[in-house]
Amino acid sequence: MFALPTTTWLVLVGVLGFWVVYTGVFYVISRNWAVEDADYDKTGDPQ
Fold this sequence. Notes:
The chain is an all-alpha fold. It has helices at 6-30, 33-38. The chain crosses the membrane at residues 6-29.
């Protein structure tokens, strides 16, 4: 593909795939951080 050797193409696709999965997992884990921070706010204003 794009005149690249097969190994190079697989490495590029593997790194891109890993980054997409990593970003997705981070998004799912961190989407409720604002809610968790509200528990530590003594004023009750989560901002």
